[in-house]
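# nightly structure sweep
# worker-07 picked up a monomer target from the shared queue
# config: single-sequence mode, recycle default, output format = structure tokens
# input follows
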Amino acid sequence: MKERLQKILARAGHGSRRSAEALITAGRVTVNGARVTELGTTADADADRIEVDGQPIEVAGAPVYLAMNKPMGFLTSVSDPRGRRTVLDLYPPDLPHHVFPIGRLDRDSEGLLLLTNDGEFAHRLAHPRFELDKEYHALVRGAPSADALRRLRAGVEIEDRRTSPAEVDVVATPPFGHEARASHVWLKLIIHEGRRRQVRLMCAAVGHPVSQLVRTRIGEVLLGRLAPGKTRPLSGREVASLKTQVGLGQD
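# output follows
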């Protein structure tokens, strides 16, 4: 079946449709050996040979939406040139292939990570303009004062830019599977940005470095009691909620 080339590229994991359009206009895409630069071009993903930078694409089948509890020590990536372990090393072999992680979760952090083969969905979830809630539990050194909590909520300067307002509270109960620690306090933080190592830098900026960081929620998707290293499919309700929040609706 013929469809727009940028839609095929997005479904194959080459970012959003806008990112796919940039690949086309840059002359990096060929169809049956012919370079394509026109955005109105259509192709048949089953019958045509489509390549990006000389590499054939692999078009995903039905969309897949998964939640993983990422343990510490794994990179949020599909591969690593240095041979370090990635989250795909944890991926069950009996589940659909060609998925990739959405957004980032530091190697030293753990918790909820979403995976998909839907490029447009992934692009929107990772984009800060949709202000999707991301909830973290951070075990910090020392007990933050009322002033430190106020600063975290209002926004702090990290890497020459102020963070957006956040919800920050001290919590008495650690997240599932974790414990209290002497001279430490668990904080719950809800942010809407996705800057690199943001929660760690925020807490360090007010004098309370993070010893342990767990992401416990994205939108309405909860980590819950999912065991470390395990994966589960998102429910239809969870997928619908995420799509609504990022302006995709249901197909």
